[in-house]
Design a protein that fits this description.
Length: 202
């Protein structure tokens, strides 16, 4: 591939990412009734993190400790989450209320509607060809993030799966490239250390 073609592909992908992120973020924040990390917090608590501590939640959504407390305060005041005793007696666990679960489902539906509207312009065969390419790109992105974590750097933005629809990602069937590579990294860590973290989303 010549340099100009490579540069154009990179620019097209980056522009697509910016535009798609703008539309998804707007739809998610409208559905949640809150901006910033609120949509991610609601979805994460709904999909895989229910009953987590505030510290666990802040790592998933990419907030500072004080930022996470402010977020939970805001969501609690809106009746979307509630605090309870944590498993160790010192921490506080965060769970969704019924209103919070409804909001999380609205966020997931809004996110899917935006992406489906874009994909609708592709034929069935084009979408079938797109899937393995998306999986390879996610694999490469996950590998880069794992490399950052191995170097004691925290990837920006929180976990990749913080807004994922777990019923659609194929994780349970072994089809999620993010989970698969993360789980492999955990297995390798466990082989070399008894204190390795068991994070299977990156």
């Amino acid at each position: 591939m010549d340099e100009s073609t490579g540069a154009r592909q990179a620019n097209l992908l980056a522009t697509l990412a910016v535009g798609l992120n703008d539309r998804i973020r707007d739809a998610e924040e409208t559905a949640a009734g809150h901006g910033s990390a609120a949509p991610a917090a609601l979805v994460a608590l709904h999909e895989f993190l229910g009953g987590a501590s505030i510290d666990q939640l802040r790592q998933v959504v990419g907030l500072t400790p004080s930022g996470a407390v402010r977020l939970i305060d805001k969501l609690s005041e809106s009746g979307l989450v509630k605090r309870g005793p944590g498993p160790d007696g010192r921490s506080r666990a965060v769970t969704l209320t019924r209103r919070g679960s409804d909001a999380a489902r609205r966020v997931l539906a809004a996110r899917r509607a935006v992406t489906e509207s874009l994909l609708a312009g592709l034929s069935t065969s084009e979408r079938e060809r797109l899937t393995p390419l998306l999986e390879r790109l996610l694999h490469a992105l996950t590998a880069a993030r794992l490399g950052e974590r191995a170097s004691s750097k925290t990837p920006p933005g929180g976990w990749l799966c913080r807004l994922c629809d777990f019923s659609a990602c194929g994780r349970d069937e072994g089809a999620c490239p993010v989970a698969n590579l993360s789980e492999l990294a955990v297995e390798r860590q466990l082989e070399g250390s008894k204190t390795a973290k068991t994070q299977t989303c990156n």
